[in-house]
Design brief:
The complex is a heterodimer.
Chain A lengths: L3 H19 L8 E10 L2 E11 L4 E5 L6 H8 L7 E6 L7 H4 L2 E4 L11 H14 L7 H8 L12 H13 L5 E5 L7 H16 L3 E6 L2 H7 L2 E6 L2 E6 L1 H7 L1 E8 L14 E7 L2 E7 L3 H7 L4 E8 L2 H12 L1
Parallel strand pairs in A: 3-7, 3-8, 5-6, 6-7
Antiparallel strand pairs in A: 1-2, 1-4, 8-9, 10-12, 10-13, 11-12
Chain B lengths: L1 H12 L1 H20 L1 H6 L1 H9 L3 H6 L10 H10 L2 H23 L2 H5 L6 H34 L9 H27 L2 H21 L14 H6 L10 H22 L7
Classes of the chains: A alpha/beta, B mainly alpha.
């Protein structure tokens, strides 16, 4: 009944190919992370992560909380020193001012001085950009578009407006590299779409964007490629469509009439299935349509599906392969 | 240039708080000054009480060489070895510990460093703003004293530059402990450690220089205390010199360099 061995084997070899391929040096990449490891005492937050993001590309970093997404970004931006490996931006170190002035960053947990007026915060960053030799282009247009309330204290703003201020700061310098940690967090749907539009525009202008999210639909809407981080390891990297084809889904179907026990045998992507009277449970890799089509003649009363989290799925795959 | 931008922004963010500190310290100085005539008029009683104290205690209270009823004795005992430097020390330690560790603790440091700004420039900019704020408040409160003191006879017999000299020496004392708070905060990112470390050194320095003279074999230890460098140098009658200014200012600089060096190399926000 089960063809799980085949499916798992495919994914494990896929992850292994990805890992070795990313370790090659690529001088055209705007973001170049090679064999990056970071430990905090006994805790290994990142372990041998390699990835590249090229100009004009949006790379979505997926993973559950604690997977290592923020640690990777903080290593890339020079807040954290790698325990091993390297993380380079625009061919250099993000801590160098001549590199940093071309990089925009929005942290996941944005904190700015709560008593400061937004315009004072913007003025400070604008001045530093100018002193670094990369003056801001059209800040008024950016602020108007994002509807940033500049005349109020930062601490008086709602979470959504605070996020807008952070986004404006990250975009001030018309950056060539944009590192965004959950950029749509706290925004209403209209602003979420605007943020994604802005990211698309930056991509069209040739910026390399590294964007972390745990919202699959967001990654699907904007990312050219995604990487899945799990427990500090990049367990998969591919166009999102390819990953979704490899994703497992659970399906529970209640039927009017009991089907034969082997009704789902031969269904593409079937991992396992069980039939008990009129209740059918199955786990399928990729599309569920074939399984539903096979069950339809028995009168479908109810269908419940659950997509497995990508990082959970790939971690299981990795463990199974090792 | 970047360092100055950082320093000015740090001061601007704290302008309301610094104005409140300035007004409070001016009020403190004025209150101390207006009590002088009543102390002067009952000077004999105070002098008898002071004479009954051990010499080391008189030294540490800044009243070893002059009657408490005299301007010098009153200023040294009631101001420069009393709450006046303590209040400015609290301000200096508060700003010094917040400069890096406080900002790191509340998460604002991350976005500041997202700007094209070297860590070293950030650290020195904030140290300079702390030093400038404590110096400015010291000088403004001294100016207030200079205005109110003459009618009260509080500057009689002192050189015209006496209180300014004492202000500079006191600032050097503040700078040492504020730089300790700054450096511990910059090196560790822990504001509580910065405050407690600086506060512990203040207490050790003050009590140490007081009690070291009680035990003859340990008397030399007094000379290691910044409080002794300040109080033992007659700051109202002698201009800032090697011990009262150059030594503490130089030590503050060394401590700060060490803190900045560590800050430039460690992980941020862990």
């Amino acid at each position: 009944m089960s063809n799980g061995t085949t499916a798992n084997g495919d994914m494990a070899s896929y992850a292994g190919d990805m890992s070795s391929g990313s370790s090659r040096e690529d001088t055209t990449a705007s973001i170049d992370v090679t064999d990056l490891a970071k430990s905090f005492g006994p805790v290994r937050a990142l372990d041998g992560v390699s990835l590249r993001v090229h100009p004009g590309e949006v790379y979505g970093l997926l993973g559950a909380n604690g997977a290592g997404k923020t640690t990777l970004m903080r290593c890339l931006l020079g807040y954290l020193n790698p325990s091993r490996g390297s993380a380079r931006t625009l061919g250099g170190n993000s801590r160098d001012v001549d590199v940093r002035c071309r990089v925009g960053y929005l942290p996941g947990d944005l904190r700015l001085p709560v008593r400061s007026a937004v315009q004072d915060i913007l003025r400070f960053h604008t001045r530093l950009q100018a002193q670094a030799g990369r003056p801001v282009a059209d800040v008024d247009d950016l602020l108007t578009r994002l509807e940033v309330p500049t005349d109020r204290r930062f601490g008086a703003l709602s979470k959504g407006n605070r996020q807008k201020v952070g986004l404006a700061l990250s975009l001030l310098a018309d950056p060539e590299v944009l590192v965004l940690d959950e950029p749509t967090s706290g925004l209403d749907p209209r602003m979420q779409e605007l943020v994604l539009d802005i990211v698309r525009e930056r991509r069209a202008k040739g910026a390399a964007v590294l964007l972390s999210t745990h919202i699959l639909s967001e990654a699907e809407a904007i990312a050219d490629r995604v990487g899945v981080l799990s427990h500090g390891t990049l367990v998969a990297e591919a166009p999102l469509g390819d990953l979704l084809e490899r994703a497992q889904q659970s399906i529970e179907v209640a039927l009017d009439d009991p089907p034969p026990p082997n009704i789902l045998d031969g269904t593409p992507g079937l991992v396992r299935a069980s039939v008990q009277g009129t209740e059918v449970q199955a786990i399928v890799t990729g599309s569920l349509s074939e399984a539903i089509r096979a069950l339809a003649p028995y009168g479908v009363r109810r269908i419940a599906t659950r997509a497995h989290e990508l990082d959970e799925m790939f971690q299981q795959t990795r463990n199974g392969a090792s | 240039m970047t360092t100055i931008t950082v320093a000015l922004a740090f001061l601007r963010d704290r302008r309301r708080s610094l104005i409140a500190w300035t007004l409070g310290i001016i009020a403190l100085v004025l209150i101390m000054a207006v009590f002088y005539p009543s102390i002067r008029d009952t000077g004999a009683d105070f002098d008898a009480y002071v004479e009954s104290l051990p010499e080391s205690v008189r030294d540490s209270l800044g009243i070893s060489g002059a009657s408490i009823a005299s301007p010098e004795g009153y200023l040294m005992s009631q101001m420069y070895s009393n709450i006046y430097p303590i209040v400015i020390l609290i301000l200096g330690i508060s700003m010094g510990s917040w400069a890096i560790a406080g900002a790191e603790g509340d998460g604002t440091l991350e976005m500041t460093l997202a700007a094209p700004l070297r860590r070293v420039c950030l650290a020195w900019g904030r140290f300079i703003s702390m030093a400038a704020a404590t110096l400015t408040i010291t000088l403004i409160s001294t100016a207030a004293l200079a205005v109110i003191a003459p009618p009260l006879g509080l500057l009689d017999g002192l050189p015209w530059w006496g209180i300014w000299s004492a202000a500079i020496s006191q600032w050097a004392l503040v700078l040492i402990y504020a730089s300790v708070a700054f450096a511990i905060g910059a090196a560790t990112g822990r504001r509580a450690w910065a405050i407690s470390g600086a506060a512990a050194l203040i207490v050790i320095g003050f009590l140490g220089q007081m009690f070291a003279s009680l035990a003859q074999p340990l008397e030399y230890l007094r000379t290691t205390s910044p409080w002794y460098w300040f109080l033992g140098s007659s700051p109202l009658t002698e201009p800032p010199g090697l011990v009262s200014f150059v030594l503490p200012a130089g030590l503050a600089l060394v401590i700060t360099v060490a803190g900045v060096w560590r800050f430039d190399r460690r992980d941020i926000g862990t």
